[in-house]
Amino acid sequence: MDHSYRANGNVNGNVNGNGNGNGSNGSGRQFGRGHQQPRVYQEPMLEPVPAGQPTDATRIFVFIEDLFFLAKIQETARKLNVKVQFVKSDKDVLEAAEISGEKPSLIIFDLNNHLANPLKTIPKLKKEFKKETNFLGFVSHIQGDLKLKAIEAGCDTVVPRSAFSQNLPNLLRRHGAPDELEEVQ
């Protein structure tokens, strides 16, 4: 039996498989999305930060418990040659800053991380680091009330998880690069 008609999708002159061959539903309107390519997010190709001295201080601290996001942040930081430290409490950040002598450039909070108690921790750290440090929180897109509370607590920016994930390489590169490199860009 000849099945060559299956190769090109043409069954008795029917190209689209709907019986009329023109891709419309009889009312003249097109249905479906046609033959469009699916939209797939392509991670931007960013150059890694040049390797510095082994004593370079950590400039980015992350309060997160979600293992999937933790792995994503670790992998992105590794690709960009940026140091990121995952912390559990404000004491960890203060201790690291004291040891290195540098204030963090960015502190990231998963605002759903109840163990870190972000709404109490953010004001403590904001008081200590003032404007030298950016505070970024991320939440589910439906948590508008938590977003407002985090901004009131001192978070500079609060974004949905999806936006955080999409902008992660740019954030890490911008805040993880040494000051000399930031000025050149």
Description of the structure:
The chain is built from seven helices and five strands. The chain is α/β, with parallel strands linked by helices and 185 residues long. It starts with a helix and ends with a helix. Residues 181-185 have low confidence and may be disordered. The chain has helices at 4-7, 67-80, 90-100, 118-129, 144-153, 161-176, 179-184; strands spanning 60-63, 84-86, 106-110, 134-139, 157-160. It has a domain at 60-184: Rossmann fold. The chain has a five-stranded parallel beta sheet with strand order 2-1-3-4-5, with helices on both faces. It is globular.
Secondary-structure blueprint of this entry?
Layout lengths: L3 H4 L52 E4 L3 H14 L3 E3 L3 H11 L5 E5 L7 H12 L4 E6 L4 H10 L3 E4 H16 L2 H6 L1
Parallel strand pairs: 1-2, 1-3, 3-4, 4-5
Helix pairs in contact: 2-6
Report how far apart the termini are: 66 Å
Q: What is the assembly state of the chains in this entry?
A: single chain
Number of strands: 5
CATH superfamily of the domain at 60-184: Response regulator
What is the helix fraction of residues, given as a range? 25-40%
Question: What is the CATH topology of the domain at 60-184?
Answer: Rossmann fold
Runs in which pLDDT lies below 50 for 5 or more consecutive residues are 181-185
Query: What is the level-2 CATH architecture name of the domain at 60-184?
Result: 3-Layer(aba) Sandwich
Major β-sheet strand ordering:
2-1-3-4-5
Structural class comes to alpha/beta
What proportion strand? 5-15%
Radius of gyration: 25 Å
- Please write the CATH class name of the domain at 60-184: Alpha Beta
H/E series: HEHEHEHEHEHH
- Taken from the alpha-carbon principal axes, the silhouette is globular
Number of helices: 7
Overall mean pLDDT stands at: 79
Main β-sheet description: 5 strands, parallel
